[in-house]
Amino acid sequence: MILVRAQRFKPNPATAADNAFQADAPEGQSDEQTAGKALAEMDALADALRAVGVRVHVFSDEDHTRPDSVFPNNWLSTHAGGSVAVYPMYASNRRHERRSDVLEMLKSEYRVQTIVDYSGLEPDGIFLEGTGAMVLDHLSRVAYAARSHRADTHVLERFCTDFGYEPMAFDAVDSDGVPVYHTNVIGCVGTEVALFALEMIPDEHRREQVRERLSVNGRKVVEITEEQVRQFAGNAVELCGRTPEGRRRYVMAMSESARRSLRPDQVAAIEESCEIVAVDIPTIELAGGSVRCMIAGVHLDRRPPGVEPELTEAVEAIDENPATADGRDVIEDDVLEDA
Fold first, then answer.
1. What is the number of domains present in the chain?
2. Which residue range(s) make up the domain with 215?
3. Most exposed residue of 73, 244, 309, 315, measured as fewest CB within 10 angstroms of its CB?
4. pLDDT tens across 55-82, in order?
């Protein structure tokens, strides 16, 4: 996966209006202090994932005009078979998070056949913010999407046609009737377990359709509450690393806030298929996103492999290898992959 070490991180004023999960930094805390705490949290996440055999590929970003660049999954996704998608972003000050050096690294180090760029829809006011707006089920090939102005259903259908997914759109709101801004805050889909706040889908018929679709292949659905969503329990991601002996190790990465919000029975259900890895990232969560938002996966075959793969994608079982970007902003030569 691609992880961006955003050195000028702070909650983005341009996204606060429609992101009910966003909060201001503590009173009296300077932007420099906020950024410093966030950097320590980013590094802690990378270290925790390495400790369970996940390899992490880090890009650095020093641009003060990109406060949300720590969330690259909103502008980029990669897909088995050599395809890459680039997405249209709602907030104008997020659109220059798209980086040509990241795309050039992917093309030079991996087998990229097609880059589908939807960003040209931005002048028309049409947006689909990547795997924030969509939660992708790689096994059943379903793209779950809560409707919002950050998740236009017409672009969703185009994406699904281009990449071979079935669109499943629905409305999702909080107890005050406020629409959920990103689907990945209310749920995640792993190989054998999914976390989803089905209670936030007000249409009972559609809610049951989503429940059935999530569980159709025997996957266990762990229902989470709105209060747990507010602690980012839905913003988790299944990863696959390696044990010291080289065996696969499946983990569910989430924040410490998310982990604390889970009941013992929910933890037990998750741990039937994967180990929970929780990292405390309260500063980053001020921006309205958590661990899942920080992860842009690499689902591409490396060209040509120079070493034995050390990471396999958790759902599609696609082998991954170290990537180098040969660029000024790559600061670590590891790769992290997501479900």
1. 1
2. 2-333
3. 244
4. 788 999 999 999 999 999 999 999 989 9
